[in-house]
From TrEMBL:
This is Aminoglycoside 6'-N-acetyltransferase. It comes from Kitasatospora gansuensis. Keywords: Acyltransferase, Transferase. PANTHER family: LYSINE N-ACYLTRANSFERASE C17G9.06C-RELATED (PTHR31438:SF1). Its EC number is 2.3.1.82. The keyword Glycoprotein does not apply. Pfam families: Acetyltransf_8. GO terms for molecular function: aminoglycoside 6'-N-acetyltransferase activity. It is an enzyme of class 2 (transferase). The keyword Acyltransferase applies.
Amino acid sequence: MTITWRRVGEPDFPQLRQWLLQPHVARWWNHDTSPEAIARHFAPAVRGEEPSEDFLVALDGAPVALVQRCRLADYPQYLGELASQTEIPDQAITLDYLIGDPRLTGQGLGTRIIEAIITATWTDHPDAQSIVIPVHRANRASWRMLEKAGLHRCAEASLEPDNPADDRLHFIYRTDRPTH
């Protein structure tokens, strides 16, 4: 099975909407899923007006996931919130991700996708020294996947949750650029 990815385009918005409507995704992403809201959220990155890199991930050519990658420094308020609670290296990258089809969860696909994106990040962003990913403490599947992908929990932080029903406690995961 081959994992590939490409930048999200406007024709992908219906697929993203379908995924964001899935209960296992909606629980953690908590987005307005109207077509207009999807366009408002994703179109700026598609047009290059937002520094985030949004990737549609495919397994053997079939879309299965979304990965968002960005430099924390491009979002100073969020960086400040994180840096006030844990060390954030210069040029740190963060990722957000989802697997759209619930039938594909729990099978190691997320781990494989994150491992591949991390490997590509070291090439795509040669000045990035670390990848730092906050995960809500209740999202056990997500933080276990990060651990399986080789990230380590480096801190706990009080951060604004994506879902207002959640408390503020997040686990911070990190991996550093390999030195070999």
